[in-house]
Design a protein that fits this description.
Blueprint: E1 2-3, E2 5-8, H1 16-27, E3 30-31, E4 35-38, H2 40-53, H3 60-66, H4 86-94, E5 96-98, H5 101-112, E6 135-141, E7 146-150, H6 166-173, E8 178-180, E9 183-185, E10 188-192, H7 194-197, E11 215-219, H8 234-249, H9 252-255, H10 258-262, E12 264-266, H11 281-301, H12 304-312
Parallel strand pairs: 1-3, 2-4, 2-11, 4-6, 5-8, 11-12
Antiparallel strand pairs: 6-7, 6-10, 9-10
Helix pairs in contact: 1-11, 2-3, 2-6, 5-6
């Protein structure tokens, strides 16, 4: 069996593309000792970690993903339901149009059925701390203005990492500002991890002379080229457009690095918006298929010894 750490980019409902890519990697014999993600990437990463902890095949990820009803993500607050003025009132009072309860409840059930409730259930038994858990998700702490790497940074909030609910962490990582209510943790306000790092592919990188295995990244976008044009309709559309522009650009310094590109699977998903909760079955299938094909194409050209030589300066035996 091949091993690789895996980092999944955020992207709302476009995360279906991640599931297709993971399926292709699993079919090729890969297992993932450590997985990480932001937002939708955190959702997929959590399900991967739980399946592996339960000794279940990663092919079951398809089954779990099918249980997600994307229309229910838009669980409006009571104020949002008020005609015309409701959304504005909800933003002012609750800092979000939707509660985010559906996602946390769904993950609590799905992960719980696999025996995973807290990060303590995902202990690896390894040291140092960066190897101690099989899952890391990111959130953005607006109060301290920093990226939170859960569970690594939980002691900084006076919390025991092993007691913190995985579903709560993923909810915080997925709390898109303006769309979903923030998550309050120890007096701090946490929102979507993508706000500060939507593709933390460097999370597991080490300075070891020779890494034990590679880290793969999955991005929910095509390779660099002409970007698609999205129409802006009204103030809320403008706010979300500004937010997505910020999220898509904040990791540019290392995303465009040739060695990062070499270890990244690019899944073209631009035809679907991250908050398109009314996505059709046909669109879901198309996203899944794009992820599957993108990973298959990546594996056809992946050369780990060459990557080590060119990107890490590590000579390998011929």
């Amino acid at each position: 069996m091949n091993r690789a750490d895996l980092v999944c980019e955020g992207g709302g409902v476009r995360g279906i593309g991640l599931v297709g890519a993971v399926r292709a990697l699993a079919d090729a014999g890969y297992a993932f000792p450590r997985v990480a993600g932001s937002s939708a990437g955190a959702v997929v990463a959590a399900m991967i970690a739980a399946l592996q902890a339960a000794g279940q095949p990663l092919s079951r990820l398809d089954e779990l993903a099918q249980k997600i009803d994307y229309a229910k993500f838009a669980d409006p607050t009571l104020l949002t339901r008020i005609p015309v003025v409701g959304p504005a009132l909800s933003l002012a009072a609750n800092n979000g149009l939707y509660r985010g309860d559906y996602l946390e409840s769904l993950l609590t059930d799905l992960l719980g059925d696999l025996g995973v409730r807290t990060f303590g259930d995902l202990r690896t038994g390894e040291e140092p701390q960066r190897n101690a858990w099989s899952l890391v998700v990111t959130a953005s702490d607006l109060s301290r203005r920093r990226l939170v790497r859960i569970p690594w940074d939980l002691p900084n909030y006076g919390l025991d990492p092993d007691e913190f609910p995985v579903a709560r962490a993923v909810r915080a990582s997925s709390a898109v500002p303006f769309a979903f209510e923030p998550v309050e943790v120890s007096g701090a306000t946490w929102v979507d991890g993508g706000l500060l790092s939507n593709f933390p592919v460097q999370l597991f990188d080490s300075t070891d002379d020779r890494p034990r295995w590679p880290t793969f990244g999955i991005r929910l976008s095509a390779r660099a080229g002409r970007a698609p044009t999205h129409r802006i309709r009204g103030p809320l559309s403008l706010a979300f457009g500004a937010l997505e522009t910020l999220i898509s650009d904040q990791d540019a310094a290392y995303i465009d690095d040739p060695c990062t590109v070499r270890r990244t699977i690019f899944v073209p998903t631009e035809s679907v918006g991250s908050l398109d909760f009314d996505i059709t079955d046909e669109e879901r299938d198309a996203l899944y298929g794009r992820g599957l094909r993108a990973a298959e194409e990546f594996l056809a050209s992946w050369d780990y010894p060459r990557y080590l030589r060119d990107c890490r300066g590590i000579a390998t035996e011929v």
